[in-house]
Every structure is written in C-alpha cells, then in structure tokens.
Amino acid sequence: MNRDIVPIVNALPKKGGASTNMMPFYNAALSTCRDVKEYQHVRLIFDLIKECPQLTPDTATYNILLKMRLSSTEKGDHVSGLRMYQDMVDEGAQPNHATFNTFIKHAIQHKQWSTLEQWLDMMQQREISPTPVTLRILFRALCVNPNQPDLTRAFDRVSAVVPLSSKQEEFLNAGTSALLGQHKTSAAADLLQTTLGLSNAKVSTYAYNLLLRCLCQQGRIESAQHVLTSMITTDSIPEPDIVSFTTVIHGLIRHADRIDLNQINALYDKLEQQDLRSNNVLQSVILYGLVRSKDNNNLQKTRALFDSIISNKNRAQIPVQHGDCPLAEINTYNMMIDFYFLHYHKSQKTHQIPKQVFQLLNEAVEVKKLTPTLVTMNIMVRGLAVLNKDLVAAEKVVALLKSKGVAMDERTVWYLAKSAYRQGQISKARQLIDDFKLPITQSGLKELKSTLNKWDQKPSTTTTEVVS
C-alpha cells in the first residue's frame, strides 16, 4: 500500500542558497520511492523537479528513472533499451558509466546478446571507459551463458581494458554467485577454490558465505557446519555474519529428512554469542523450519513467532548489520496459513477447516493490500480442496485471487481436479482439466487426465480409482 506522498513532498527543500544543490534531496526521494515500487510518487516528484526553476535533473536523476523504466519493460521488447537511451539523451541527460552498466545489465537479463557491442561502441563514442563493475556484469553472464559468442566478444573487449588487480575477489565472487543462482554448484565450487587460494589479500566473509551456500546446495550440511565453526574459532579466516548463520540454518531445514529443532536452537545460540542479532530473513527461515518440522505440534509457539515477525518487520535495528533487508510479508503469511492447514490435518481434526486461514488471508490481501502470489493460491486450494474436501470454498478462493491478478498453474488445476475426482465429480474434474489451456508437464495431472480418459472408454464403470 502506497504511503501518503504529502509528507515526502513537504520534507523536500523548496529554496536553496546560491551554493546549495537541492538535487541530492530530490534524487534520494526518487530512489526511495522507486525501490519500494511507488512509481506514481516517482513521477510526481520528477514533475516537481521539472516545474521548479532552481532544479535541473542531473545524471543521477535520469539513472534512477532509467532503472524504474527498464524494470517495467516486457521481456520481448528487444529495442526498449536502445530507444530509452535515445529518449534520455533527447531529454538532455548526460549518460555516465552507471547509465551504460544499467543498460548492459538489462540487455543481458533479456538475452539481447547482439546489442552488447553496440553499448560498448556508444560508451567509446562518449569517451566513457568500462569499469570493474562492467567487467563483473559481463563475467556473471558469461559464467551461466558460456556459449554466447556476442557475450564472449563483449567480455574479451572489456577485460582487455579493465585491470583486475585489487578487484580479483569481487570479480570471482560475481561469477560464483551467478553460478549458484543457476544451481551450477560444481562450476561454482571450482571458482571458489580459485578465490580461496588468492594470496594477495585476506578473503572476505562474503566469499565464505558463498562457500557455505555452495556446500548447502550440494547437501553437504555437515561440511557447511564445520566451515561455520572454523569461521567462529579460527583467526586466519573472517568471522561469520548473520548471512553465514542463516545460510547454514536454511541448509539444515531444506536438506534434513527430519528437521532437528535442537540443532537449529544450538546454531541460534552461537549466533547470539557472536554479538549478532536475528533479522527478518533469519526469522522467516526459522518459521519455515517450524512449519516443515514433523516434530513441531506447538501451534502457540509457531503463531507467536509469526506475530513477532509481522509486528517487528519495520522496527529500527541498531546497529544495522549486513544481511538486513525488508520482509517479504506475503511469504510469511503463506507459511503461517500452510501451517494451520497441516497442523489441523495432522491433529486428526478431519474436515475441520481452521478459521484462522481465512482471517490471515483477509488480513494480508484485503486489510494490508499485500499482493498475493501463486503460492498463496496453491496453499489455500490444497488446504481446502485436498486436505478438507471443500471444493466450493477452494473455487471461491481461486476466484478471489484471480481478481487480484493471480493466475492458476498446473498444480492448482491438479489440486482442484483431484478433489473433484475423489468426490465422484467426474465431469467436473474433466472440465477443470479441459479449461486449462497450457501444456501439461507434471506427472500428477497427466496421470489424472489418463484415468479420466479411461472413464470415457468405460462409461458404465461406477468404481472410482483414487489418484493419490
């Protein structure tokens, strides 16, 4: 939900002395509103800048607007970057290296490989040299797209003019992070080996956090715990930060057959002994662990953690520590809704739909105006249609969330059709599948469709084969 623009505007200076540059204040307001996606506020503030004789948009202003515009372009719009660049120049903007780095990142994001050398040509025409940031952007892309000749040429061209020298670790870390993002853990491990072998400088905590992430992605949780312990006890390597602990705790939760809450508590105690404090990310990870744990039947404890996360999401944290970030609030609501469904189902309260799921959904979507996700829809549909056999309630929730911009996927259809089939509503199940126009790729819906096709061949059959 957007904040009121009036206090923001009132806080901006309207007049400045001869030596006072007011643009940094306006740029800060633009940047803050853009970061929280208050795009109407961005446009209003920019209009104020243009209307004020004492204010002239500078390169930083245009770079802020550029990032906003590029983030909202369609994937298939292959000329958008070049067109926006020309529009910026026509408006009087003076592009700098940050401008071109933004356009290059956008081209990579949308796989516009053929435009990369065009951007480098335009940089050269304006006598703007690529920076180590430019090189890292291209290296990240090259790590996960090694067979793109246009990208390779652009990287070779920039690497020929940008010395690595003092930025070696940052360069390697950029590639490692990109590879881990694509779950290419073997290649990431090779790069990490090079990084950890650098002899010219002490390797950063960030590099060790990448190592922890790599080990956890490989399922080597015990090794990750050993590395974390070494970071705590060994002077020759950097101390852990909140990200280090969060990574290992998340790894424990994701890869354990049975989540050991005592292990998580022990790591949390170590975190506090390091004079670190929890944050939104770690609290959400721990909530996820409680929700997934087969041994957790403590509804009050889980709800108390949820309430604490929601109530403290905007609390000022002093000192600010690396790894702090805004709470993905809808994800937290999704987890708690899921826990209520699972808790009631495991408690053998058959067909008793917990009223709290509707209260939480209403609070998130209607009261707080949070944007629901596909995960929200699928948690509600599974809980209502599959766990509680209430197909009518599930379809009402689907209609509500569709009105909020959420589209069904194959899993949603499978939950609905499976519920209909189990209740003997064969034509309803078939209609749900027929109405789904996208290709069916997952085994669950494929098997159900095949079973329904057998019904077409045997119309007199009365026995229902339940699909699990």
What is the tally of beta strands? 0
Please mark out the parts with pLDDT under 50 across 5 or more consecutive residues, or reply none: 74-79, 461-468
Largest sheet: none
How large is the radius of gyration? 27 Å
Shape: globular
Task: Quote the average pLDDT.
Answer: 84
Order of helices and strands: HHHHHHHHHHHHHHHHHHHHHHHH
Strand content: under 5%
Distance between the termini: 41 Å
- How many separate helices? 24
What class do helices, strands and sheet pairing give?
Answer: mainly alpha
Helix content: 55-70%
InterPro entries: PPR_rpt (IPR002885), TPR-like_helical_dom_sf (IPR011990)
Pfam family, one: PPR_2
GO molecular function: mRNA binding
Protein name: Pentacotripeptide-repeat region of PRORP domain-containing protein
Quick overview:
By secondary structure, this protein is mainly α. It is built from 24 helices and no strands.
Descriptive report:
- The chain is an all-alpha fold.
- The protein has 24 helices and no strands.
- It has helices spanning 5-11, 23-35, 39-51, 59-71, 80-90, 97-109, 116-125, 132-144, 149-159, 168-181, 185-196, 205-217, 221-233, 242-255, 261-273, 280-292, 299-311, 329-346, 355-367, 374-387, 391-403, 410-422, 426-435, 443-457.
- The radius of gyration is 27 Å and the shape is globular.
- It starts with a helix and ends in an 11-residue tail after the last helix.
- Mean pLDDT is 84; it is low at 74-79 and 461-468.
- It comes from Mucor circinelloides f. lusitanicus (Mucor racemosus var. lusitanicus).
